[in-house]
Amino acid sequence: MTEQSPALDNLLTESRTFPPSEQFAGQANAKAELYATADADREQFWAEQARRLTWDTEWTQVLDWTNAPFAKWFVGGKLNVAYNCVDRHVESGHGQQVAIHWIGEPGDTRDITYAQLKDEVSKAANALTSLGVVAGDVVAIQLQMVPEAIVAMLACARIGALHSVVFGGFSPTALRARVDDAAAKVVITSDGQYRRGKAAPMKANVDEALEGAQTVEKVIVVARTGDDLEGEVPWTDGRDVWWHELVEAQPAEHTPEAFDSEHPLFILYTSGTTGRPKGILHTSGGYLTQVAYTHHTVFDHKPGEDVYWCTADIGWITGHSYIVYGPLANRVTQVVYEGTPNTPHEGRHWEIIQQHKVSIYYTAPTLIRTFMKWGADIPARYDLSSLRVLGSVGEPINPEAWIWYRDTIGAGKTPIVDTWWQTETGAIMISPLPGVTATKPGSAQRALPGISAKVVDDQGVEVPAGGGGYLVLDKPWPSMLRGVWGDDERYRETYWSRFADQGFYFAGDGAKYDADGDVWLLGRVDDVMNVSGHRISTTEVESALVSHPTVAEAAVVGATDPTTGQGIVAFVILRGSATDQGDNAVQELRNHVAKEIGPIAKPRQIMVVPELPKTRSGKIMRRLLRDVAENRAIGDVTTLADSSVMDLISSGLNSGK
Ligand code: PRX
């Protein structure tokens, strides 16, 4: 187990509960009986959930787990994912319903109905086909939150191509690694993106990434910033093509082909414990079933009535599952906002909620804590009475932020769903059910109906109520990852070897049961940090640091941070020849990490030290470095090879060296 931070200790003493109101319970999509129904016959339960979708051919078997840990769900079934997210809503008479209220950062807007979305996706599907993209090919997408991002993802799904979305904040180096790993044939990006009122280049970064790339045949460029961007958009004739020229010229008719339930839908890269990101593979039928089911049940979504807003970016799994696939499969009307929460002012989210009468709002604890910092008087200026469900995802939410969220944003009455899941799980796994669960600030509480999770000790034995240990998933679920792209061994090793005897999926999170048996998540137990809900591996940042010529050795830890959950703190030993050991060196190293990985990985703090604490076998003792980073008394040093190292580090830091 990792040591608990003071914030988590505080979290574990929280004991308030908030039962649902009768009024909410009466109208809720979720019913308490669901747990028992699912337990009685899990496969039957999931078969019923799969009937939310429209299948071209019904499956013959719900689950084939004979080749575990490689699952097959809804075996023999065929469907088209994009048809399920778009066309069928038009066919059922809802073509005029707004699918997306899009809001650009500078204030421009677009409302897109399902009928329009169908045309756009069909044209984009035809466009990709015209470029030679066929089922099974990989299309990399690096785009900000513009409608074309969603259209591009659905167009891929429609023709059976896999998308690999790369977060816009990732560096050219990071993009290139992902393009190469998946052998992407096409890249979709934009000329530039608006960030805090300014236009910043995107295409130039993509060009830098693709220099010498072997697999990329075409780059499609969405015109977003146009003349606002300084300088020319770099262009490679024969390879680059404007989205509007290519897509607008296509017919709006496209017949969706039905693909196997296990046909790959997308790859999404995430950080693991080594420096190399993993391409998490998701497939079609099971994934869409679980994202649709959870979006319906956890958010209590009512098509045609609710206005939903998930503030994630499509570069992360939350954007895939809860902006694109789950909500659209459920005929959502949703807000998609391009910009940052404080552009042009700190009330932007509340202004949007007021204007569009948003009723379901799903965001991350780091943002909630930022809103708290900005002050309750800001949301108080807006009418937020349309809100009826609030969601949280990405990291443990501290009770203080939970209560603030409920009181200040939810008028003291909206249910809060604290949803635990991962890129790998594809969809929500542990969460309260609004209208059913008496919620507890800080606890994700209970595995959803149809899902099974346990907290176990080192031996894989379930801990009793009140006990802590590792979170595992002990039964396969429909939206589970189907592997790590191109690396079956890494898939087995990372997720299935820790509790191989029991056949449990090891999530990498520490957790605890309270006296009622509810689950509390305690953060990662491996070398993965969680910064503003973004997963970053310590090794990844260490590799970036040591790739700089002045760095001899580096160790990175995630230190508790009041706003971002964790902050990246690096300890570096500079090479003897590095003359500048001061602020400039540190600043340069921070920028170097941003260039290698992306600005999200920039260390909050870099400390230049003479030595690193190591065990006799040479393993860095991060626990001790965390003590330093969090200004705590330094823990047990007896297993250090040289116990005086910590004194050396502390005295160096105290003397400001
Ligand atoms: O540590 C858990 C944390 O985020 C990790 C998964 O990160 P990622 O794959 O990027 O997906 C984030 C969005 C689903 C988990 O291993 N995490 C996510 N949600 C919660 C959480 N920790 C505590 N409570 C949550 N609700």
UniProtKB/TrEMBL annotation:
GO terms for cellular component: cytosol. Residues 93-484 form the AMP-dependent synthetase/ligase domain. It catalyses: acetate + ATP + CoA = acetyl-CoA + AMP + diphosphate. GO terms for biological process: acetyl-CoA biosynthetic process from acetate. The modification N6-acetyllysine is found at K619. The keyword Hydrolase does not apply. Belongs to the ATP-dependent AMP-binding enzyme family. This is Acetyl-coenzyme A synthetase. It comes from Amycolatopsis jiangsuensis. The gene is acsA.
